[in-house]
Amino acid sequence: MITYQSVAEMIELAGDGTLSDVVLADQAALLEVPEAEVLARMKDTLDIMRRSAQEGLKPDTRSISGLSGGDGYKMHKFAATGKSLGGSFCANATALAIAIQEYNAAMGKIVAAPTAGSCGILPAGVLTMMDERGISEEAAIKALITAGAIGMVIATNATVSGAQGGCQAECGSAAAMTAAALVEMIGGRANQAAHAAAIALQNQMGLVCDPVAGLVEIPCILRNGGGIAIAINAADLAMAGVESLIPLDEVITAMGEVGRALPESLRETSLGGLAATPTGLAIKERLFGK
Cα separation of 113 and 116, whole Å? Predict the structure, then answer.
């Protein structure tokens, strides 16, 4: 059985194969069910992700606070113009990441991946791969299994909670999970997936959690848009042969240490960062009074 305490352990078991190969077999044995049933359960997750993207892209999606909604739709329309500097793939993935997070803010049903505050990044990457690269549903489901395994190691050795580790623990973890999933979906090996995850996570190291008015909207929604871009870039770097000199397991440990070092004001308390700006405070007063 995999302990999910070390990515290096999973890479060794995978050899020249993929992380999903070993994790799928492990989960089936752990749950005492056929591998097909594990895949079927993950398909339900993929279906929820797909629906949240469809609903989030509707132009009339709005949060209860009125602070957010419609930006995913705007980005989706812009992507269709072909003018995006990052190209069609990155533009469409960004649109989905924002739209899904907006749907979360509108109290829609989403998949916490690994948290509600970072729910747009992983589905944006997987769904865009299916739409633009013709990746099969089975390959997408297996990529979600790989992402989940990376998330389990992060949760075990650090944290995926913004209240404990800042937004690096939420959007950073999601970007790492997504980068690994993307690498697997384009034919990368287990060690390449790990390098991609390490690159993505270290590029969000120290990111604070400072929700304006205590709501998972500002800056959470746009950070999902940034997180998917980081994941795509990290996957490209890993597939090009670029390696993280610091192994993923050590990056995860360092992220946890950085999170514990963050002051309370920057760990989801809305006492610092953007939440404490004049505009942030004005929004809070407008919504909740003095």
Answer: 7
